[in-house]
Amino acid sequence: MRYQITGKQIDIGEALQTHVKSEMAEVIGKYAERPTDATVIFSKSAHEYVCESIVHLSTGLTSQARATATEIYAAFDSCNEKMEKQLRRYKRRLKDHHRKRDVPVEFSQAPSYILASSAAETAEEPETIEPMIIAEMETKVPSLSVGEAVMQMELAGAPVIVFRDEGHNGVNVVYRREDGNIGWIDTRAE
Predict the structure, then answer these.
(1) CA 12 to CA 17: how far, in whole Å?
(2) Final residue of a domain: which of 37, 64, 97?
(3) What does UniProt give as the signal peptide span (predicted)?
């Protein structure tokens, strides 16, 4: 397991790094079977310390947590508790599905674009209906089951996730609805 512990505009001492490695190793070892790497970033926002942690699992899932506190150790401990809660839920859901993933999640490449918002445009009528592309990049689309996609969306705290359904290899979308439920768009051609 690789650890990357950094500070943005603050110095991270050896004692804090040792504390982070030992505490994270305990939590990750308890709930995650094969973690690949963990990134912990400390920063300061006004009078509070901010701790952000990201753990990548060999199954392709990513767990993220963020916490703030007036002391740096307290910020990490709070962040680590949130991470532990997410990993505990993840492990419980895996047990509930009664199936183990034998192979890692496969990813396929897809183009990703950032379009200019209509609020950025002037009050004038646009000349064309073509949106202005601000950025163009590649993104990874995982092959997951619907349950794993919902789990990944909740672990990442994302409002939506696009994935390839393992059952029929079609592109699907799960998203959080305004009423709090989860929506699923299945593009399977009948």
Answers:
(1) 7
(2) 97
(3) none
Are 17 and 88 members of one domain? Answer: yes
Write out pLDDT tens, residues 16-36.
999 999 998 888 888 776 777
In a domain? residue 114: yes
Distance CA 25, CA 1 (A): 9
Distance separating alpha carbons of residues 9 and 140, to the nearest angstrom: 31
CA distances from 52 to 5, 8, 44, 59, 84 (A): 10, 11, 11, 21, 13
**Among the listed residues 148, 147, 139, the one whose alpha carbon sits nearest the alpha carbon of residue 59:** 148
Cα–Cα distance between 142 and 70 in angstroms, integer? Answer: 38
Residues 116 and 135 in one domain: yes
Radius of gyration of the chain (CA): 20
Domain of 131, CATH number, reads 3.30.505.50
**Are 83 and 55 contacting, i.e. CB atoms less than 8 angstroms apart?**
yes
| Of residues 36 and 79, more confidently modeled | 79
With respect to residue 102, please indicate whether it lies within any of the assigned structural domains.
no
Contact between 150 and 182 under an 8 Å Cβ cutoff? The reply is: yes
Sort strands 2-7 and 35-45 into parallel, antiparallel or unpaired: parallel
pLDDT grade for 178, boundaries at 50, 70 and 90: confident
